[in-house]
Amino acid sequence: MNERAYAALPGHALKRVRIGGLEAIYHTPSGITHLLAEPVPELLDALDAVGTDTFVTAERLVAQIASRFDLVGDDPQERPEQVLGERLAELAALGLVRLRAEA
Q: Is 12:28 a contact under the CB 8 Å cutoff?
């Protein structure tokens, strides 16, 4: 089974500024600025809380944030772990988090 795990980037890699209900995130290595809404800043904060050297699965991250956030989505058939995994994969594709695939 191939399970994806994610980790925060080192603190110097992202410069984050709150602008109203959005957050501007400057990715230092690429020079690209992303303008993102919730829950992205909260996901980045949750990964930061785990640490930059610790990779976590979507399931573990859901367990960590379930007490602070309403994890019920629009579609009751979708598991929160599945939706969170999709968001984390998108963040990894943007270079905003690190991805490790475990065999």
A: yes
% of the chain with per-residue pLDDT over 70:
87
Antiparallel, parallel or unpaired: β 22-27 and 32-37: antiparallel
Between CA 52 and CA 41 the distance in angstroms is 16
Q: What's the rounded Cα separation, in Å, for the pair 50 and 78?
A: 25
HEC string for the chain? CCEEEEEECCHHHEEEEEECCEEEEEECCCCEEEEEECCHHHHHHHHHHHCCCCCECHHHHHHHHCCCCCCCCCCCCCCHHHHHHHHHHHHHHHCCEEEEEEC
CA distance 65 to 77: 20
Model pTM?
0.84
